[in-house]
Amino acid sequence: MSLKAIIHGTFIDAPTPQALRVRENVFVVITKSGVIGQICSNEADLREEFKSLEVVKLEKTQVVVPGLIDLHIHAPQFKQLGTKTDIPLMEWLERYTFPAESAFSSPAHASNIYPKLISHLLKNGTTTAVLYGSNHLSATKILAESCDKAGIRAFVGKTCADMLTPDYYIETTEGSLKDTEEFVKWCYEKWGRGKEGKVKPVITPRFIPTCSDKLLKGLGDIAQKYDCFVQSHAAESVDEEALVEIQHPGRRDVEIYQESGLLGDKTILAHCCRLKDSEAGVMEKLGATVVSCPWSNILFARATVPIPYYNSTFPNLKIGLGTDVAGGFGTMLDNMRTTILQDRVDSFAAVNRETTATDRNIKKENWTVDFKYAFHLATASGAKALGMEDMIGTFEEGMRFDALKLDFGLDGEDGGNARAMRFTRFGDESVGELFEKWVTTGDDRNVVNVWVDGVEVL
Ligand code: GUN
Ligand code: FE
Fold first, then answer.
1. Which of 119, 341, 343, 418 lies at a C-alpha separation of 20 to 30 Å from 160?
2. pLDDT band at 281; cut points 50, 70, 90
3. What residue stretches are annotated with the Amidohydrolase-related domain (predicted)?
4. Is residue 327 lining ligand 1, measured as CB closer than 6 Å?
5. Are 290 and 299 contacting, i.e. CB atoms less than 8 angstroms apart?
């Protein structure tokens, strides 16, 4: 159902990390093209052209919030989600993950698994997804088409790997470049080049250890020729870092991406738990994004991205959140919560770094991560990483309506139906407090409607 209506009720978004914007009793006009036509507090102020639209009134226990933006998902690992995170990263790839991904040489397998992943994302409130596909062109096209069909906003990449990958999954350098370019052209033909396009191609070198210099350089050329986003992994874990040191003595991920033409304001690098300050500085200067995937980072790197420290030391460094399906088994909500928790024990991340925990704590000042900050990271911050802060992530006139309707009244007036919701409502909470409870203890049961571009997709 395409909305052309006015929603009247409470809207919550987080334009800054420090405070929620709670707008109670507002009228929000959603036009047929999915744009927020007007936001006003009095019905009488509605513009003439909107006055005849149907007004849909929210219940007192319902709020509308921006959809969540997940900046790092491995689509072909979805079947593995929730299992097999018991060994270090490089062994995990070899033993479990490359075999799971290679199964996507079968288009039938892709057609079976990918729609299920997208349903899982939408159900859990993710309205924009940045996805790694497998190394296969046809399965990655199926992923892009599945996103389009389900209505999720997506950035999709054909993963590239021409080295250090098992024979049954490796690509040739030329094949990888050719398939990448074909995928980009195919996406542009189908969905257009602009940021309005529902599905956008992303250049996707898997990570430095599986990509030859020639492949990286070629991918950098394609990214520039077609003005595409780039996604990859950087400074993820001790074993990954050690491997890069063997392959490229004295050199590190960020500088290799930069020299290959892959680092700029359309680059999003996942993990970055072991980034040196000088590298964070380069990323800040060039406008690249750090994608913190806290659940996966703790499992594999036993480390975290020090978000408040980066905010005070590199104030223009873009940071967003990712689930890293299936290296992490949490949803976006789980990763928002882990972001809050990791902040309190951030000192363990300092162990192998240049900066000490004490330095970081002093610099933190007012930057403690709480539920507001975590929600900001999952919405407005993610939008900024994708250059879409004027389109999604918050609610302003002229922006697209990518949103969730949350309901906190599912337990019934008397709190009787406890299984309908994960948390208990006592009846005297403000809607802001109920929203906080959702971020900290709620789940998908509270997500009752999901819209992308004003279209109801769940
Ligand atoms: N580095 C290279 N490939 C992967 C992957 O699939 N997941 C994670 N977390 N890190 C990687
Ligand atoms: Fe990853």
1. 119
2. very high
3. 63-457
4. yes
5. no
